[in-house]
Amino acid sequence: MSAGDSERVLVNIEDGIAIVTLNRPDKYNGLDMPMFEAITGAAKTLKKDRGVRAIILKGAGEAFCSGLDVKTVSKNPVNFLKLLIKPGRRISNLAQDAGYLWRDVPAPVIAVTHGYCFGGGFQMALGADFRFSTSDCEFSIMESKWGLIPDMSLTVTLRELVAIDLAKELTMTARRINGTEAKAMGLVTRVSDDPMADALAFARELASRSPDAVAASKLLFNRSWNATDKVALDWETRLQKKVLGRANQRVAVARNSGSPETPYRNRRNF
Question: Are both 148 and 240 inside the same structural domain?
């Protein structure tokens, strides 16, 4: 299926693995308004699909995402209002949703980066659970170069990965780093010559596990990583009660007890 204006984002699902492709290669997948809307639309759709076991987020052409297409978006000043206004009681706006909504999708998300991963593109990748990259992919929190601050959920996602001084340095200087440097800093999960192949292999491994356990694990860490001990321990108990003795937990036991072909059911809602 596809989502968004002129197929800005393509979504293909096979064997429980969704491949989401940013599809504006002539602009290095720069973020214009249709791209923002297509990305958030894809995330919302995949969140509801209980048959999806893992998601790969990648860019078509020579880059993952070069960030905001300032020239196109600024042609209509109303666009900035659309990006920044929070509708209703939502905690995030449209710009933030491009990165933040991937945290809300129960299935694990793997961002595969190459070429450029700048500004909003970098922040979108940080919203994924894992980042697989080429060694020469260029990363930058680019906003300060244009007199701006990062505003696409980086303050939520970056704090889970690096110390505050490094976060400030990368943000204030807009320094470019490559995939190898990003891996050493903790910003990238794996570096290889073919991150897409590695991501597919990893996605298949995740898809072979109980979808309930995988989704509950993602939710557990997202809700508890920066929480108090009490809140973290409460989440452990709360989520264990939701998976213990349920259909997919019984399947997991069967698959480890001589019936490896027993199929899992679709993920429960958490």
Answer: no
